[in-house]
Structure formats: structure tokens, C-alpha cells
Amino acid sequence: MRVLFADVSLSRLPEATVARLPVYLRVLTDATEATISSDNLAAGAGVNAAQVRKDLSHLGSYGTRGVGYDVSYLVRQISRQLGLSSDRRVAIVGVGNLGHALVRYGGFNARGFRVVAAFDVDPRTVGQQVGGLVVEPFERLAEVVEEKGVELALLTTPASAAQAAADALVEAGVGSILNFAPARVAAPPRVAVRQVDLGVELQILSYYGTQASTDPVDLDAAPG
Amino acid sequence: MRVLFADVSLSRLPEATVARLPVYLRVLTDATEATISSDNLAAGAGVNAAQVRKDLSHLGSYGTRGVGYDVSYLVRQISRQLGLSSDRRVAIVGVGNLGHALVRYGGFNARGFRVVAAFDVDPRTVGQQVGGLVVEPFERLAEVVEEKGVELALLTTPASAAQAAADALVEAGVGSILNFAPARVAAPPRVAVRQVDLGVELQILSYYGTQASTDPVDLDAAPG
DNA sequence: AATTGTGAAGGAGTTCACAGCC
DNA sequence: GGCTGTGAACTCCTTCACAATT
């Protein structure tokens, strides 16, 4: 590793590595010792130890040979890479069943994401208080995004409304969209879009559930 | 392709292919024509046309050269492969914010999954009616799973309770677990376990959100 | 002695490009 | 002519194995 620090922080990480870093972060957060070996980190994350070392080597040489990795230092480095150094503001668009639950879901706050706004088109939902937030009308999206510094959005509208909502978010300057609607949404390249389709997840699971008896493959693996 | 039908249905599909089949299924369900080309299917799914053809070739030769694929026939073949030929019974373990929302979430029913039971340990939650179901006490899990023929479970407990709940599910004979708790759960090889960690998804998104301005990579892609 | 960091080998998944078929 | 099915090339990811380092 002859790369300068500046290069390391600019270089893009392999996609597969990025997908595992949050898992390492979770293991590190639960760690009790001040130091952890690639072996132990790998066991907690459910991957190969060489994988861990290669992944971490992409961030720079942060381990100590013969000793391991300093937990809190590693947490800082990974957080920095992932853009989690400061709290990030999240908005939720579409306050149906799923949106409603996500507004109140504590898991995000615990990881440095702050849900600061919720939007809906339904006049019966708008104005209601959900998890300490007042649901805003969809028309105020741009205004509120600006006002509250929203950086990420969770898209929990029906599939039919997803693209229009995504367009409005892009227009308003939101740079990252996590789309829960069972539909592909298009966005310009500067906006990161990621799809989480619960139906798809269940269908994949269904396949492995029916296959599991014929072949001993365990699946609780890094996100595919 | 010289493989017999029997072999095709027994052979394991590449993991990456399995992850895309549900996406194809979604596109096919929305299709208006009776026939679809790999080009169009690929466009709808957001992948390469050669990818589609290779994926589908793993199921057998179901296309017609010069014409394309018969939509309804393809839907049947994919559904069969994924083990979706009949409605599959789903239970939800842990009726907190997320579990509550998933019980009422319509997206599952629309895709052939029937939510037939919900469980919780909290006596204040047990007995309540949620989305047409009465929340059962956790102790009745084995009994109700048996009684209602539950095949899949959504695990929406806190992380600290996830492993114990998974153990109970395995013990009760549930073959597939979709784990929403931010913790890895262990299970015997005959049980398929799949992890959906919303915090992890947001953290991955956060990385690409911060990188997006420096490099035009769109992400709304098939799971890597 | 223990553990990292990494070149090299191996494996999986993707894309190309075109023969084969309708 | 149009589109599928697939060998071959290519790219990406994983694992091995061991030198380097503390």
C-alpha cells in the first residue's frame, strides 16, 4: 500500500466492500474489547477473515500486526468513509403503513440518522402528529427540505406515485433516496437511489426455503 | 442446453439469478403485451438484455427465437422456481412499530404471501387486534405455527430478542426467516435466513450519496 | 507468537458476439 | 429480420498463503 492518504479517501471502494462496512460497524459497536482481530470481526459479521482484512485495507492500513484493529479508531474511519461523521437528516415521503412505522422506528436514530420530516398527499393524514412530527403536505416538500436540511429520503409511497415523488425529491436537492416502493425509479446520476423491495426479499427467501432441504446453504450473508 | 427437465428443476440457480427473478416477475406482472423480448424485460428490470437471457436460460428454454417470451408462461415458470405456486403462510414475530406496519402492509398479499399470525411477548400488545389478526402470546408460537401452517416468518423483534425468537421458530418447524433485527441470527442449514437491516441500507446509501457528486454511478441496480 | 497486508490463484457473475432458430 | 441461447472473454469478488511487522 503506497497510496497517499488523500488518494485513499478519494478512491471509490468496491461495491461489495461498501455493503459490508455497515455490518462491521455494527459488530464494532457491540464489541467489548478495545481491540479486535480480523478473525473475531469476521466471525461477528459472518464473513471470511481475509475478506475483512482486504476490505479494511481499502480504507488504509489501520491495523497493527500481531495485535489487531483499534475498535474506536476503526469505527471513526468507517463512519467517515460512509459519510456518517455527523447526524444526517432524513425525510419520509408517504405516510402509509410502512412510512408511519419508519417515522417511529427507533433503529435509525440509534445509527446517526435523524428523521426530521414526513410528507403525504392525503389530506386526512396531513397535519397529523406521528412520532413527534407533524405530517406535511406533499406540496411543501421543497420548502421543508430546504428549511430542515434534508439529505436523504425514504420513499414509501405506492408504486404508482413513486416516480413523481422521486422527481420532486431530486428537484428539491435531496441526494440519496431509499426506495421502498415496488417499482424502479429513475434519477439523474448525481442522486444515489437504492431499492428495498420487501416483496422481492420474501420471494428470494421463498426460493431458498424450498431449496434448503436439498442443499445446506445458509443465507444470512452480506446483502446481495 | 442438453439438460433434462428434471435436472433443471433440481439444479440450484446462481444466487445472483435468484435475486433478479423476483424483479423480472414484477416487470412481467405489469406487462401489457402477451409476449416480451429480453430487451424490454431488461429495460424494465434495469439490467442488460444478455443477463436476462442467461438468467432465463437457467430455467430452461422458454423463449421463442425471433419472437420473445410468453409473459404468462414465464410468470408461471418463475413462480414455480421460486416456490410461489401456492399462497405461502407468513407469521410476524414482534409487533413493535415495524412488525405492526408489516402486519398491515398490503404489499405481501398482493404477491401471494398471506400473513396469518402475529406474536409478541408484551402483555399489553397480546390480544390486540392488528390488521384483522389477534396478536398471540409468544408462548403459543409452536401451537399456532402448526395450526395455521406457517412456512415463513418475519422477525421484527429488538436485536436482543432475535436469536431466541429465531430458535423458537426453527423449533416450531418454520423453514424461512426474514430477519429485520439489526443482529445476525444463527440457524441450522435446513432453515433459510435472510437479513434486511434498514440501518445498513441507509448507511450504504449514505456512502453513495456523498460519492455521487464525484462519480456518476447510479445504484438502483440488482443486488450485488 | 500473533496478526496484518497483499500478491496470486480461484471462482462467480457479467457482457460480448454470433450461431441457431423462428 | 428479429430475437433467443450460449461459448468465450472479461471483470469483479473471494480465498489462499505467506512475507512483513509488532
Given the structure, what is the number of helices of chain A? 9
Which fold name fills CATH's third level, the topology of the largest domain in chain A? Rossmann fold
Oligomer: homodimer
Succession of helices and strands of chain A:
HHEHHEEHEHEEEEHEHEEH
**Structure summary, number of beta strands of chain A:** 11
Strand order of the largest sheet of chain A: 8-5-4-9-10-11
Topology, pairings included?
The structure is a homodimer of 224-residue chains.
Chain A: H1 5-10, H2 15-30, E1 35-36, H3 38-45, H4 49-57, E2 63-64, E3 68-70, H5 71-82, E4 88-93, H6 97-104, E5 113-120, E6 129-130, E7 133-134, E8 136-137, H7 141-148, E9 152-155, H8 159-172, E10 176-179, E11 192-195, H9 198-211
Parallel strand pairs in A: 4-5, 4-9, 5-8, 9-10, 10-11
Antiparallel strand pairs in A: 1-3, 2-3, 6-7
Helix pairs in contact in A: 2-3, 2-5, 3-4, 7-8
Chain B binds a DNA duplex (22 and 22 nucleotides) through helix 2, helix 4 and strand 2.
